[in-house]
Amino acid sequence: MERTFLMIKPDAVQRNLVGEIISRIERKGLKLVGGKLMTVPQSLAEEHYSEHTDKPFYGKLISFITSAPVFAMVVEGEDAVDVSRHIIGKTNPSEATPGSIRGDLGLTVGRNVIHGSDSVESAQREIALWFNEDELSSYAYASPRDAWLYE
């Protein structure tokens, strides 16, 4: 089992899409093990997006992500990073597959409703930035359900 970090961005929170997005993630078989609605402090936003500091969109990105609440979460499942990236869709919603979260709900690159870690290493770093260990749950599904989800 693998864990990954996902963040429902301010545009999706303002559009009342949190439940819809979480539902899609859970229907895919990923398990929610941590979540919180929060307004992102400037320092956390800057640390989270530190690899983009030299890019022209950095200032707008920090301003946007700190402008209104986000829903930060950790999900768990087999190949959670790859599975979540697939259901999230490409960064540009106009290039994202119909049926993906961004393909169906995203509007522009700057308003693409959700962030997802792009690798296991990024997921570990981002989970540690956003959550304390005591904010994450470990629990088992009933074994009959697991037999239907995983080989």
Structure description:
- The chain is an alpha+beta fold and 151 residues long.
- The protein contains eight helices and four strands; from the N terminus they run E-H-H-E-H-H-E-H-H-E-H-H.
- It has a four-stranded antiparallel β-sheet with strand order 2-3-1-4.
- It starts with a strand and ends with a helix.
Ranges where pLDDT stays below 50 over 5 or more residues in a row are none
Q: Output the radius of gyration.
A: 15 Å
Helix segment count?
A: 8
Distance between the termini: 13 Å
How are the secondary structure elements laid out?
Elements: E1 2-8, H1 10-14, H2 18-27, E2 31-38, H3 42-48, H4 58-65, E3 70-77, H5 80-88, H6 101-105, E4 114-116, H7 120-130, H8 143-149
Antiparallel strand pairs: 1-3, 1-4, 2-3
Keywords:
single chain; 151 residues; alpha+beta; 4-stranded antiparallel beta sheet; 41% helix; globular
Concise synopsis of the structure shown:
This protein is α+β, with helices and mostly antiparallel strands and 151 residues long. Helices cover 41% and strands 17% of the residues.
